[in-house]
Design goal:
The protein has 962 residues and is an alpha+beta fold. It is built from 24 helices and 29 strands. 42% of the residues lie in helices and 13% in strands. Helix 8 runs antiparallel to helix 14, helix 12 packs across helix 14 and helix 17 runs antiparallel to helix 18. This is Reverse transcriptase domain-containing protein.
Length: 962
């Protein structure tokens, strides 16, 4: 065997086995190199073909196995479905055999049915009328004639023609009672209907006696996942007293004809119809399964948030834009929220149905909605409503009448209370003599934007403003101001909520009438007041300041305040509007100054001005719950004027004594300055690689539980002298209040502890009460805005975390010494950090741990642990569409571009810009979220003003609005 010089091509030489000489052989057989190459290439091709064949066989085998698995699963599904269908067929066969085996004669139900048809035909022209008094005549003919006359009179009032022929038959005697009886009409019923009704009443009595409660009739049923198709008729559903509206899944609406489907069943007692859908070239696609969104509501409307970017932000924005709430929080069996309920009112109660009409779906729990509504087409007409027309009063005669008294002598010879009573008696006498009294009939009211009244008002305001700008005449400005005030009054009216519901409850005590509801509010507000106690001795350690002993102001100050009441037509508890006082300012300035001066010098606040009405103000939650309201005092204009003059006199001295940590109700301070100090401290801590622990406190009914004795003692220690100290004590004690609800007033309640919410002096007095809060702390810092307090401190290690706890304990003891108590359930801690391993520490009050939050709403600003503005931007971009929708609804017929701009810049723009000195978008997506709001307004403005703009080009509409 030898190797050839040719690379990779071996050759063989055959030698004779018997010869050993080197002589070449005589004969040899040789194979050419090209033939060998061809053979080897063929072998290689065969090897590759074999490998390819093996791989293709493996792929084909794998594909066959996968297809076989799919076919097996489909076969299993078909087998299951076939088994279900077999059971259904067996059930139908059983029911069919049961029907066929029925031995009841067919003539029996047929005869009953024909009898019912005949009886209903005879009853359809009959009307049963209850409440018709017995006729006074004795003979039968006269009785029938008298009954016919009474019925004809009633029918004529109902605008039913008098030409209708009818017969009268009295089937029962009139119920003789002293109580008024309403006239009621009912249709005549057949014997079978009466029998069915009796059976229903008996069944109701039986179930009630067995302990069942809250038995109701479902007037509207909404079923999802019905799995119906066109082969099922409405009559097969068993809802005979309902109008059925269906939307079944089919190949026309989906890529499948199985599953899905919705039914809306409305009782026939209510008139209902399907709203026709206009043929618009518009398609709306919504993906409702958005688990990353957390839904909530506030007083402004729908709120939503997400820990991640919302995949479809336009979906919640649309509902917020239209002023809707999402009220369902019932999760399915998998802990998810799939069913969303959007409504424009919070007066809908959502509960899990305890008696579902169908089998409960695992993904869609059966939900019961209860909503109280007035089914009348219009509110009732209430005649004989009187009011004083102050606009057409004879002010010249009133002025002469009031000037006819010697007020200086009257006030000098009487006490403070008697002087005030005499003066107000004269004012009310002049009103009765010289102010016309008008009778008004309340008519049904409709939404104002359905009329042209507002359009005319806007044009008048615009024209008056143009006229004033040209002439600069004071009279023209007065006309413009009047229309401007009417314009904003309209906006505020439509922006406000619908008020207190007609049915409210307090701890299970329900009320459906105004008088009882007002008393429930009075009972709740009175329950929060506390009895006075003796001040603690440690209050004497307070610092002393140079504070005034009296308040001084001039007659000119009184005149200027009366002048500021111009155009103010609101009525106080005394029934005197502000504009009435303005028009008599020349006559009233001097007597009022004398009265105020006498009150201050004597140290007695007049009892007449202590009486005020309370307005229930919804804090949060269900508006039908009395517990969710807090009282706001509605004071008279004279009382507000007196308090304002006193405040202006003493405020410069008091401001210098307030601690720097107090940012509420003082000039130069606000929620912005408070949060600016706080956020700056946190940023400085981040620069030092430290975290900040903040403890947020909340007091129980703090304004309603201010102890008068403690407050007066604090004012004395701070340096207030006599007589103003006695005047403050008289101002706080023996105040009487009542709740006015629509046309009813509650019982009068006397305040044992309180600084009146809504009063002018209350914020200043409360600021002085808590002015010593910072002095009790040793380590942590504190910031205060009115009654909102937060302690905060830098935390470098676990030992540092113990220091805020010790200061919190001191703050609790301090608050208890002031007879104030912390609401532990609402106190919480928030840590601010930018590290991966923050220091965790549990803070407590009276050994009760307070909660730990990952985000907080602090004075209107939303904070995250790393101070990212993302959550705050989400919130303002959630709130802004609500007001944009409000603007769209009330200005749908506006033609003036300035009206839209004014509304946007007054209602929406402040939300987007408020506290912008604290937060600033860090990312482009955050900037785009804000820009989306403004672009929505520009699109709406372009549509309203009929301005055609190219896509994403707003120059034309911006020019029109500028």
């Amino acid at each position: 065997m030898a190797n050839s010089n040719n690379k990779g091509t071996p050759s063989m030489t055959l030698r004779s086995s018997s010869s050993t000489s080197s002589k070449p052989p005589t004969k040899s057989t040789s194979v050419s190199a090209s033939s060998v190459d061809a053979i080897l290439l063929a072998i290689e091709d065969l090897r590759k073909s074999h490998e390819t064949f093996i791989l293709s066989n493996k792929a084909l085998s794998k594909e066959l196995k996968s297809s076989l698995a799919v076919l097996t699963s489909r076969f299993d599904a078909l087998s299951t479905e076939l088994s279900v269908l077999r059971n259904i067929v067996v059930s139908l066969d059983t029911r069919l055999l049961a029907l066929e085996s029925c031995t009841t004669s067919a003539s029996t139900p047929t005869s009953e049915l024909l009898q019912e048809f005949d009886e209903r035909d005879r009853c359809k022209s009959n009307i049963i009328e209850y409440g018709i008094p017995e006729p006074s005549s004795s003979d039968l003919a006269s009785k029938i004639s008298e009954d016919k006359e009474k019925i004809s009179s009633i029918l004529s009032q109902l605008n039913i023609g008098s030409t209708i022929e009818f017969k009268v038959t009295r089937i029962a005697n009139f119920n003789c009672s002293d109580l008024p009886t309403d006239v009621k009409f009912f249709r005549d019923k057949t014997s079978l209907e009466r029998k069915t009704l009796r059976a229903c009443h008996q069944e109701l009595d039986r179930r009630t006696q067995n302990g069942e409660a809250d038995l109701t009739i479902s007037y509207i049923n909404v079923l999802t996942e019905t799995w119906l198709n066109g082969s099922y008729n409405n009559t097969e559903l068993g809802m005979f007293n309902y109008n059925i509206y269906r939307c079944d899944r089919s190949l026309l609406t989906s890529n499948s004809n199985r599953g899905g489907g919705v039914i809306i069943a409305i009782r026939k007692d209510f008139q209902s119809f399907l709203i026709p859908s206009p043929n618009l070239s518009l398609e709306q696609l919504f993906y409702f399964n958005l688990p990353e969104i957390t839904w909530s509501n506030d007083v402004h409307g729908l709120s939503y948030s997400s820990t991640t970017n919302i995949r479809h932000p336009c979906f919640p924005e649309k509902f917020a834009f239209h002023g809707l709430y999402q009220i369902n929080s019932i999760l399915n069996s998998h802990g998810s929220l799939h069913d969303l309920i959007f409504t424009n009112t919070l007066s809908v109660n959502v509960n899990c149905s305890i008696d579902p009409p169908v089998k409960c779906d695992l993904y869609h729990p059966v939900i019961s909605l209860t909503y109280e509504t007035n089914l009348q087409s219009s509110p009732p007409v209430v005649p004989n409503t009187f009011f004083f027309n102050f606009k057409n009063a004879n002010y010249e005669s009133i002025s002469k009448f009031l000037n006819s008294f010697n007020w200086l002598y009257t006030f000098q010879t009487n006490t403070v209370d008697t002087s005030f009573y005499n003066f107000f008696d004269a004012i009310h006498s002049s009103i009765l003599k010289f102010v016309p009294r008008v009778t008004k009939t309340l008519k049904p009211t409709f939404q104002p934007w359905f009329t042209n009244e507002l359009i005319e008002l806007v044009f008048k305001k615009h024209q008056a403003h143009k006229k004033f700008k040209k002439s600069s005449n004071l009279d023209d400005y007065q006309v413009f101001s009047k229309y401007r005030a009417h314009f904003w009054k309209f906006v505020r009216k439509n922006k406000s909520s619908s008020g207190i519901p007609s049915s409210v409850d307090l701890n299970g005590e329900f009320s459906n009438c105004n008088q009882e509801s007002a008393n429930l509010f009075a009972k709740h507000f009175e329950s929060v007041y506390t009895l006075p106690i003796t001040p603690s001795s440690n209050l004497t350690s307070l610092p002393t300041f140079y504070l005034p002993s009296n308040a001084y102001f001039s007659v000119e100050d009184v005149y200027q305040h009366l002048f500021s009441l111009r155009g103010n037509v609101s009525l106080g508890p005394d029934g005197i509007p502000g504009d009435f006082l303005f028009k008599l300012r020349d006559t009233l300035s001097w007597p009022f100054w004398l009265l105020f001066r006498k009150s201050l010098d004597m140290g007695i606040f007049p009892s007449l001005l202590k009486s005020s009405s309370l307005i229930p103000f919804l804090k949060t939650g269900n508006p039908s719950k009395v517990m969710n309201y807090r009282p706001i005092a509605n004071l008279s204009h004279v009382s507000k004027m007196f308090e304002t003059l006193v405040l202006r006199s003493i405020q410069p001295s008091v401001n210098s004594s307030l601690i720097e940590e107090q940012h509420g109700f003082r000039p130069g301070s606000s929620t912005v300055t408070c949060n600016l100090v706080f956020s700056s401290f946190i940023y400085d801590s981040f620069a030092l690689h430290a975290q900040v622990d903040a403890i947020y406190t909340d007091f129980n009914k703090v304004f309603d539980r201010v102890n008068h004795n403690i407050l007066i003692n604090i004012l004395s220690n701070y340096g207030f002298g006599e007589p103003i100290l006695s005047w403050f004590s008289s101002y706080l004690t023996n105040r009487q209040q009542y709740i006015k609800l629509h046309d009813s007033t509650s019982i009068i309640i006397t305040l044992s502890s309180d600084v009146p919410q809504g009063a002018i002096l209350s914020p200043l007095l409360f600021s002085l009460l808590v002015n010593s809060a910072a002095s009790v702390l040793r380590h942590a810092r504190i910031l205060i805005f009115a009654d909102d307090m937060k302690l905060f401190m830098r935390i470098h290690n676990e030992n540092d975390a113990c220091l805020p706890q010790s200061d919190l304990n001191r703050l609790v003891l301090w608050s208890e010494s002031l007879s104030l108590s912390l609401n532990i359930s609402k106190c919480f801690k928030m840590s601010y950090f930018r590290t991966s391993s923050p220091i965790a520490f549990s803070y407590s009050i009276h050994d009760t741990p307070i909660s730990n939050k990952s985000s907080v709403r602090d004075l209107g600003f939303y904070f995250l642990p790393n101070l990212s503005p993302r959550l705050h931007i989400q919130e303002i971009c959630c709130k802004s569409p609500k007001l944009l929708g409000f603007i769209k609804r009330i200005s749908s017929e506006f033609k003036l571009d300035q009206s839209l701009k004014i509304l946007f810049c007054s209602l929406v723009r402040p939300i987007l810009e408020y506290r912008s000195v604290i937060w600033d978008p860090h990312l482009s997506i955050e900037t785009l979220m804000i820009e989306r709001v403004q672009r929505k307004f520009l699109l709406f403005a372009a549509y309203s003003l009929k301005i055609h703009c190219p896509l994403h080009d707003y120059k034309l509409v911006l020019t029109a609005l500028s």
